[in-house]
What does this fold into?
Amino acid sequence: MNSTVYIGLGANIGDAQGSLAAALDALHAEDLIIEARSPWYCSSPLGPVKQDNFINAVARLSTSLAPLDLLDCLQAQETRQGRRREVHWGPRTLDLDILIWQGISMETPRLTIPHPYLTQRAFVLLPLLDLDPNLCLPDGHRLDSFLDQVQDQHLYRLETISEPGQGMTS
It folds into this structure.
């Protein structure tokens, strides 16, 4: 049985938007069903490292993988696209995060679902709400109830929303 999962995508090195589109194509080739992608957004970087702005999006996918197996798949794709984990919150060729897994809450040394910072990041909340304006955390809290907390974060939309099968990776 397949589960619905929301993943965050981000990059700020090289052709960031191209890297994100290539990652979605590669994940689709691994038999993950990409159901929809939010618009691309541009966001200011977080943390103390001076770096370029990020391109971000969220994708909704369907998978039969277990959470840690999907994490392995996402991290393998990051590595294939040149990700190096040298500086915490530093520049990235590709960053793929599991944000929400419908019906699952978990905390392990490798993975926490829902993502522990998703309610604190405009570049995650707004794209999630683009895909599902009524989306809730597993505890029932509506994601739109956290928008006031991220109003001061610089973020702008680069395109309109993509419908499933309508150029999700372009």
Observations:
- The longest helix spans residues 16-29.
- Confidence is low (pLDDT under 50) at residues 163-170.
